[in-house]
Design a protein that fits this description.
Blueprint: H1 8-22, E1 28-29, E2 34-35, E3 39-44, E4 49-50, E5 52-62, E6 65-66, E7 70-79, E8 84-85, E9 89-98, E10 101-102, E11 106-115, E12 120-121, E13 125-134, E14 137-138, E15 142-151, E16 156-157, E17 161-170, E18 175-176, E19 180-182, H2 203-224, H3 226-238, H4 240-262, H5 267-300, H6 306-320, H7 326-350, H8 360-365
Parallel strand pairs: 1-3, 2-5, 3-5, 4-6, 5-7, 6-8, 7-9, 8-10, 9-11, 10-12, 11-13, 12-14, 13-15, 14-16, 15-17, 16-18, 17-19
Helix pairs in contact: 1-4, 2-3, 2-5, 2-6, 3-4, 3-5, 3-7, 4-5, 4-7, 5-6, 5-7, 6-7
Keywords: Membrane, Transmembrane, Transmembrane helix
Organism: Halorubrum distributum JCM 9100
Protein name: DUF8173 domain-containing protein
């Protein structure tokens, strides 16, 4: 699935958060000098020291000392009050909470970010999140882009505080040496850790690119697999709730299963391949979902046409996706429908069942 706006990192982070909340996984304790293997949960206990943490996990908790960087993706990341990171924190997560000390820079994309009153970042802070709270100390500059940004009463920022938010709250007790600047360009610069600086292209360019790429993929699917594509589209209309439920199950359970596989050394290569296939499946499922919506509309109008259905579905979702909140919800629903219908159609093919769709020649001739 191609995301064309600056919210891509946030959506991925929210998905990881959902995975973490739904995973009944046991907690593992970091025992090696450098944690790099994907795991259900990584914990650096108080009194323990590791070189670095570079992994994908449901949760990452640092109560001890990480001499180097903390990087990767997780459902939640917490630097406890007793925790210390000697390097940088560069991660994507559902929630990020810093109660301890980070000697370097912090660059994160998250659903929610909080620097508490006991937390300290010696370097700079660059964060994109749904909600952002800065109530601790930052030795450098702060760049914060989110729907809600709070500068708390215990905040001490030695540099400049630059933000972009729908709702901004600043306590009168907060101290910012370099001043507070509202910068709307932060919301469209691709997020922290991607290139830095402002946006060099207007936002519609990204949207147009996403439409073009999705149309290209959809055209390939319709040309190469006309019969299968027709069956996927028809299933969304006939088994809407079943398709959506299966899509939600596939979206959540698949990464959990791959994380479990990755716990073992032997399973890491398989998990990496699995995550790659999972990413492609999400994109294909999203495009099929858009095609199915367009097909459903044209069927109701009595003018079925697979090419027009693809164009209508992709363009309509791109336009709806520009709307705050509603756009994200629509994209998620279409993804669930398409992914679920794709999974069910593949299952039927695997079991040798014909969905009742026309032959490839008939599917092409119908248009």
């Amino acid at each position: 699935m191609v995301l064309s706006d600056g919210n891509a990192r946030r959506r991925i982070a929210l998905l990881l958060a959902a995975v973490a909340l739904l995973s009944p996984l046991a907690t593992g304790v970091a025992a090696a000098q450098s944690v790099q293997t994907p795991s259900a949960s990584v914990v650096v206990d108080e009194g323990e020291t590791v070189d670095s943490v570079e992994t994908a996990a449901a949760t990452i908790v640092v109560r001890g000392t990480v001499e180097g960087d903390v990087s990767g993706a997780a459902g939640s990341i917490r630097i406890a009050e007793t925790g210390r990171v000697g390097g940088n924190v560069d991660s994507a997560a559902g929630t990020v909470s810093i109660d301890g000390t980070v000697a370097g820079d912090v660059e994160v994309g998250a659903g929610a970010f909080e620097l508490t009153e006991t937390g300290r970042i010696d370097g700079s802070l660059d964060v994109g999140a749904g909600s952002i709270t800065v109530d601790g100390a930052v030795g450098g500059d702060v760049r914060a882009a989110g729907e809600s940004v709070v500068l708390g009463p215990n905040a001490v920022v030695d540099g400049e505080f630059r933000y972009d938010a729908e709702e901004f709250t600043r306590s009168s007790s907060a101290s910012v040496a370099g001043g507070v600047v509202e910068d709307p360009s932060l919301g469209g610069d691709g997020g922290p850790g991607i290139g830095g600086g402002g946006s060099f292209l207007p936002s519609w360019v990204g949207t147009a690119y996403g439409v073009a790429v999705n149309l290209a993929l959809g055209a390939v699917l319709l040309l190469v697999f006309p019969r299968f594509s027709r069956s996927v589209g028809d299933r969304v209309g006939s088994d809407t709730f079943v398709s959506g439920g299966v899509g939600l199950l596939a979206l959540v359970v698949t990464p959990l299963a791959l994380l479990l596989v990755a716990i073992t050394i032997v399973g890491i290569p398989l998990a990496l391949v699995g995550f790659a296939v999972y990413g492609v499946a999400i994109w294909v499922g999203s495009v099929y979902g858009q095609y199915a919506v367009g097909s459903w509309v044209l069927d109701r109008l009595g003018s079925p046409n697979r090419w027009l259905a693809l164009f209508l579905g992709v363009v309509a979702l791109a336009l709806i996706g520009l709307l705050p909140w509603v756009g994200g919800l629509a994209e998620l629903l279409v993804l669930l429908l398409g992914l679920g219908s794709l999974a069910l159609a593949l299952n039927d093919r695997y079991r040798g069942r014909d969905s009742g769709a026309a032959s490839d020649q008939e599917a092409v001739a119908a248009d």
